[in-house]
Model the fold of this input.
Amino acid sequence: MSLFVIGSFLAFALLGMPLAFALGVSALVGLWFSGFDILVIAPRVMNSVNSFPLMSIPLFMVAGELMLKGGIMDRIVDFANAFIGRIRGGLAQVAIISGAGLASVSGAAVADASALSSTLVPSLKKQYGLGFSTGIVAAAANLGPIIPPSGAMIVYAFMAGSSVSVGGMFMAGVVPGLILFFALMILCWFIAWYRDYPLTGNPISLGNILRQLRRSLIVFMMPVVVIGGIVIGAFTPTEGAAVGVCYALFLGFFVTRKLRLADLPEVLLTAAKTSALVGAMIAFASTVTFLFTIDLLPMHIASMMQGLTESPFIFLCLISLMLLVVGMFLESNAAYIMLVPLFHPIALQYGIDPLHFGFVFVLNLVIGMLTPPVGVVLFVVTGITGVKMGELVRESWPFIAAMYAVLILCILFPEVVTWLPTRLGY
Done:
């Protein structure tokens, strides 16, 4: 039965059916094949999305959209410019800093890619050409799901169940996110030096740094308030997301004063569309997961994996290789929803720390957002900037390699992921 479900999903997806509906139709195929009453799908679909923690996803999306509409990019870019100064590849590093700053308030690679492409690429391409400029922007946008808050981590924690908390996943991403941030900064400098790009930026001025820090501090307090409140237990992730929405409204209306009441319908509609897509995937995937469970697929996979190796390290390597392929062909949310219920329990049987496995899983699929043929960030950047896909992919490979280097580091040294959550009691 599981083979019929998987086969029908792949067939419908390859034919161009939206992934959420491909999951639903494949669930119907599985129900028909198994002989279950089709009415079993209704309560499962309803119960899967009737979840208080899931409300944090649309709320974080609304907060991110409000920050983008509220002119937050200008302050982040000015802040980055003040700290970089006049160095080779300085504007490229400003883009990376801006991506990290935007990641700390949005948590979504697609939204970050859209914002960075429209605001930074016109200036970047004057210095570096369109190809390298868009490669930088795509890499910077991919920090969104890694640096907390992260929508991907929320979905993973929900699908993994009680053994993984959203706060723990957020903290697991802090140290690897910082390592990746500095790796991308160094890589930008090296490429700029190797290609002899011109010096850019103004000399560093302490007065300018203090001025931009004063302008930007209230912006960067948002992740401190939201994530800090979640970590210390002041509020749940869903309540934290609601606090983020209120904070974004305050900044947009009273600090930057660029947010208008007329912008709110577009903000809500954009967040609703994305949330509906994720919700539909979770709803239909719940029936698929139910069919996999009654078909004992997780047990069969666990037996097969344990027959191949008893080493947790080898298991992580095999999962990473599988996700490398999956990320190239399957949209990341669909991959979380279908694969986390299968492989997370197996990782626990191997004795792997659930936060360690969760972050490795997320990072694999985040990298997949930059790899063809289904790299969603690539399509967003090409759609906005007009760069050819081949040129963008060619310029993105060094940044993808840096992300895989961080992934390998996290696999070899689990403490990179687990050190901070452990210190905070997760």
